[in-house]
Design a protein that fits this description.
The chain is mainly alpha-helical and 195 residues long. It has ten helices and no strands. Helix 1 (8-23) packs across helix 2. The mean pLDDT is 92.
């Protein structure tokens, strides 16, 4: 058996997703995933700490894409402009050819409450990291937290639309529309004064 080949992580991810979709997440073992691509269970665990991580591998790359977008934004960008730059940067992480993979991945996650919780945690970590980056740029509270949480929400809503059946628009276009919707909601003006 070949001990190492380029793309081993990607092969394991693709095999895992296919097995999770066909026989269920709980019913699939790490050994089965590895064997399906001609590898050993030990090799699987060299790449992933557990089978759940196969679905969430790459989270750090998404966070880094958000941070790169913010870093490239002008110094005088507003908090929402920084979030928009982060969203634009992260959109490159989701090319159209990745949509079917993302749809299948989400279908697996939707069938398992523990995976759903892990997905929510991913968005929470994203919001916290963006909030830290905003504060590092001098954005004060509560603006930093509001902008960061809003950015994570815009991303989550946009991603859900992007993978919906029949959707063909690029995620960047969807994100811009969702962000415009958010800005429209906040432009209505203040609500009743607090006592």
């Amino acid at each position: 058996m070949v001990r190492w080949q380029p793309g081993t992580s990607e092969r394991l991810q693709a095999a895992a997703l296919e097995l999770f979709a066909s026989q269920g997440y709980e019913q699939t073992t790490a050994a089965e995933i590895a064997q399906s691509v001609g590898l050993t269970e030990r090799t699987f665990f060299r790449h992933f700490s557990d089978k759940r991580e196969v679905l969430f591998h790459g989270q750090q790359l998404l966070v880094e894409a958000f941070l790169a977008g913010m870093a490239a934004a002008p110094d005088d960008a507003t908090p929402l402009e920084l979030v928009a730059a982060a969203l634009d940067s992260a959109a490159e992480f989701f090319p159209d050819e990745r949509r079917e993979h993302s749809r299948l991945r989400q279908a697996v996650i939707d069938q398992n409450p523990a995976l759903q919780e892990r997905e929510r945690h991913k968005l929470s970590v994203l919001a916290a990291t963006v909030g830290d980056a905003l504060r590092a740029r001098g954005v004060t509270e509560p603006a930093a937290t509001l902008a960061a949480e809003s950015g994570a929400t815009v991303f989550g809503v946009s991603f859900t639309q992007w993978i919906s059946p029949g959707e063909t628009r690029p995620i960047a276009e969807i994100e811009r529309g969702v962000l415009a919707e958010l800005r429209g909601l906040t432009a209505v003006g203040p609500g009743p004064a607090a006592d």
